[in-house]
From TrEMBL:
Entry annotated with the keyword ATP-binding: no
Pfam assignment, any one: GDI
GO cellular component, one term: Golgi apparatus
Xref: PANTHER family: RAB GDP DISSOCIATION INHIBITOR ALPHA, RAB GDP-DISSOCIATION INHIBITOR
Keyword Cytoplasm: yes
Its biological purpose: Regulates the GDP/GTP exchange reaction of most Rab proteins by inhibiting the dissociation of GDP from them, and the subsequent binding of GTP to them. Promotes the dissociation of GDP-bound Rab proteins from the membrane and inhibits their activation. Promotes the dissociation of RAB1A, RAB3A, RAB5A and RAB10 from membranes. Regulates the GDP/GTP exchange reaction of most RAB proteins by inhibiting the dissociation of GDP from them, and the subsequent binding of GTP.
Location(s) in or outside the cell: Cytoplasm; Golgi apparatus, trans-Golgi network
Family assignment from sequence similarity: Belongs to the Rab GDI family.
Protein name per its UniProtKB record: Rab GDP dissociation inhibitor
Chain ranges passing through the membrane: none
Keywords: Cytoplasm, Golgi apparatus, GTPase activation
Source species: Sciurus carolinensis (Eastern gray squirrel)
InterPro entries with a match to the protein in the record: GDP_dissociation_inhibitor (IPR018203), RabGDI (IPR000806)
Amino acid sequence: MVGVNSEGEVACCKQWICDLSYIPDGARLSQKAGQVIHIICILSHPIKNTNDANSCQIIIPQNQVNRKSDICVCMISYAHNVASQGKYITIASPMVETAESEKEIEPALELLQPIDQKFMAISDLW
């Protein structure tokens, strides 16, 4: 069990998910469990074949893209007050499984074409 002490109260749980910056150096786990690739894209159109939906979630099954895990793509839009009128935001954060992490995300990026802007980062999973 792990816990968080806040304002004199302790909340306990079996698992704690957060950015490493919230964990004191002495409490950090020493074993890296993998990496996650974060892709955020800005589009001027909804994802094709979604009936022009303002939001959706697409799951690309692992066995269709030769992966150990699925790729999930989430799309939100101006309808949710998170982007300018006519803009769509997509987010995907699959586990990195090979040394070619950007190639791993290609099936998701193909769904999103054309992409106005793409932001990508890889972070360690502890």
